[in-house]
Amino acid sequence: MILPIVAYGDPVLRKEAVDIQKDTDLDLQALVDNMFETMYKASGVGLAAPQVGMSLRLFVVDGTPIIDGEEEDSEDFDPSLVGFKKAFINPEILEEDGEEWAYEEGCLSIPGIRSDVSRPERVKIKYYDLDWNEHIDEYDGIAARIIQHEYDHIEGILFTDHLPPLKRTLLKKKLSNITKGEVRVDYKMKFPK
C-alpha cells in the first residue's frame, strides 16, 4: 500500500523517533513493505518512518541503480549499491569517519530542492533486521550517505539543516511553499494543517 509522504513543516519530521519494541503489536513486515512500495513510487533510494508520519526508529533503503526499469551493473556505478536493499530497525550509528565529501542530496519530504551536503565517507551502524537479528555493518561512499541521510530523519534532522545559513535563507520561500502544499509532485503527499 502506498503511504502519503509527510511534507516539510510537519512536526513529526522534527521529533527524535522512538525505538520499536520487539513485542510490538505493529505489523513491521507490512509497514516495511509499504515503505518500500511508497519509496519506489516516489523514485527514492531511502525512506524513514517519520516521513510516513510514524515517529519510529525505522528506515528502508534501496540504492540499487535502476536504468530504464533494469538493474544497472555497469562499472560506472558504485558497486556497494548493487543489492543494497534493507530495513534498519532501531539503528544506532556507532562511528562516522573518513574525509567529509560533498554530494547533492534531495528529500522526498522536501520536493524540488537539492543541494550539496558534506558528510563523512564511512559509517558503522548497529541495527536489527525484521527477524530481530542484530547486525553491526560498515558502509562507505553513497551507501554510507544514504544511511546518514535516513538516520538524520529518525533524529529529527533534515538535509537542509546541514546547509550554510545563507543557503537556508535563500530557500525559505520554497520551503514555505512546500509547507503550504504549493508544490507539484507525482507521488502522494500529506501537507501540514
From TrEMBL:
- Function per UniProt: Removes the formyl group from the N-terminal Met of newly synthesized proteins. Requires at least a dipeptide for an efficient rate of reaction. N-terminal L-methionine is a prerequisite for activity but the enzyme has broad specificity at other positions.
The gene is: def
One GO biological-process annotation of the entry reads: translation
Keywords, sorted A to Z: Hydrolase, Iron, Metal-binding, Protein biosynthesis
Q: Does the keyword GTP-binding apply?
A: no
Q: Molecular function terms in GO for this entry?
A: metal ion binding; peptide deformylase activity
Enzyme Commission numbers on file: 3.5.1.88
Q: How is the cofactor bound?
A: Binds 1 Fe(2+) ion.
What HAMAP family does the record point to? Pep_deformylase (MF_00163)
**Which residues of this UniProt protein bind Fe cation?**
C107, H149, H153
What cofactor is this protein dependent on? Fe(2+)
Tell me what organism the protein belongs to: Siphonobacter curvatus
Family from the record: Belongs to the polypeptide deformylase family.
Catalytic residues (positions): E150
One Pfam match, by short name?
A: Pep_deformylase
Q: What is this protein called?
A: Peptide deformylase
**Xref: InterPro entries:** Peptide_deformylase, Peptide_deformylase_sf
Enzyme class name: hydrolase
Instruction: Name the reaction it catalyses.
Output: N-terminal N-formyl-L-methionyl-[peptide] + H2O = N-terminal L-methionyl-[peptide] + formate
